[in-house]
Amino acid sequence: MTLKFYGYQYSTASQLVGVVLHEKGIPFEYSSIDLRKHEHKTLEFLARQPFGQVPYIDDDGFILYESQVICRYLESKYPNQRTKLIPTDPKQRALFEQAASIEMTNFDYYGAPAIFEVLFKKVDELTKLLAAKLDVYEQILSKQRYLAGDELTLADLSHIPVGTLLPVAGIDVIQERPNVLRWFNGLTDRGSWKKVKEGLKNTA
Question: How many whole angstroms separate alpha carbon 167 and alpha carbon 94?
Fold first, then answer.
């Protein structure tokens, strides 16, 4: 049975799952949940995703939500299909987990709220904190191609949805750092992200 993917085009979490599905070449049926119409708060939706958030997947009756968990599940189920996103070597896996933690606690933690604050409240404190974190990224990426080493992992891809919104909000923290910019441009130049940008849609 084809995997079913329920998301919203402008949700950064949905975009990340879309990127991973394309990176892995996993066919899926996409159903758009319109957050503006509160479709994520209907009883039918809440029966599958009790927190009323997108995305979630239905893999032949197996319901799973939380974007990072979905991505790890897809890699675990299809480890040898196209792009390998999580290393199996213990040391390389540890470096991946380190990079994934960095993304969650140092990039998304400041980046997502900073976008909201700048777009809606015009507050720049979070932007300054994010810039300081990216100074460390600049050092790391001056020595290696990706955050966990010289191979692409899910930790790198996780930066794309929020990272692409930063310049939209007028936050130029990526563009100001050459190694971060080189790394991020490489991520957004991948075919998987280009497909997600064109719109989340069925591939099955």
Answer: 31
